[in-house]
């Protein structure tokens, strides 16, 4: 794929761009600036390392970038469980690092005012995946990258020579509607009315001063709640998270609406995603949905619009890997099955979307399960098999439903399995085929499987992942 390099300079200046590998010049391009801007398009290069880029203006060196790499870049989007930092993860080892991998976190800009971005952030850029750089990086992305690296080396394939880049673009507490542009919401009148128009209608008469006062008060409430949690843990060190919530209530949420609210519709599309749109990505991994469970009946349409919006903005229109919501039981609304079903249906409809189930990777009383290794490993294995081994891996699809007076037969396009009762309890249990190989039998009146907020998975498919909950 061609690579575009652009910049600014004095008008009619000569810009020379030189690309080298291992000290040898392999490309050289010259161009004149026009109205203070210039652009050079580099020819495609093979995956590899030890590249350097030199940019000169009228013979004077302006930029010299070393230790560059050409390879595959994966984009990790979503909300808090994708954002969840490695340093807080249950399996974290402070010596953990990833050789041959570069990482980049898109600055979590919440709003822009008078050309100034808030909150302020240090200049961002690509980093080597050292232990210090990874500590604040997405745990899911880090473990996925680890598996991709490990599998390519273990299998001795050519892919071990392909450098990998991981881009983290996510923010906790966000709806899908935050991550798409207004035109995408407008394509569905119901979405536009429910998520965009209603939001801004609610605060059409709100002044900036009123919004600031509401934000200050919410910050005080949040700090008081956090302090209460800390005190509870001190006085009740053996109490569970569920017990603490029963005593103190849930985390204050959501914050006040307004122009500075990062949860406003389309906001993060402009302040975060737009900074990386137009770039090529090998694939997009999307892990989100918790914030939208309250509006679960809209999620299928939301996700469809998000995928089309991002694919239209990314130059090579990559495949999406949708991570399904894990189990969670501390939500009285009981709408988590709606979101999971929407995720399953979207992946069934779109050939470029692939479902990665996570029903067994949750925590009943913690919306942010601390173990991300299990899911990161599953994502990495699925992507490696599909993107590099070119295997036709997929989540099982329903291909036939046969109903009778007493039973309903639900047939899938591949064999299904259950845990082997003789294998004992194990993190990677042995599986045995179900009686009818690819067909689940429902008794009279039964129309769904694992269709609950926090179900225990019963059926699995060939790679050991749980079958998605579903309803007929």
Automatic annotation (TrEMBL):
<keyword id="KW-0378">Hydrolase</keyword>
<protein>
    <recommendedName>
        <fullName>Sialate O-acetylesterase domain-containing protein</fullName>
    </recommendedName>
</protein>
<dbReference type="GO" id="GO:0005975">
    <property type="term" value="P:carbohydrate metabolic process"/>
</dbReference>
<dbReference type="InterPro" id="IPR039329">
    <property type="entry name" value="SIAE"/>
</dbReference>
<dbReference type="InterPro" id="IPR005181">
    <property type="entry name" value="SASA"/>
</dbReference>
<dbReference type="Pfam" id="PF03629">
    <property type="entry name" value="SASA"/>
</dbReference>
<dbReference type="InterPro" id="IPR036514">
    <property type="entry name" value="SGNH_hydro_sf"/>
</dbReference>
<dbReference type="GO" id="GO:0001681">
    <property type="term" value="F:sialate O-acetylesterase activity"/>
</dbReference>
<feature type="domain" description="Sialate O-acetylesterase">
    <location>
        <begin position="280"/>
        <end position="379"/>
    </location>
</feature>
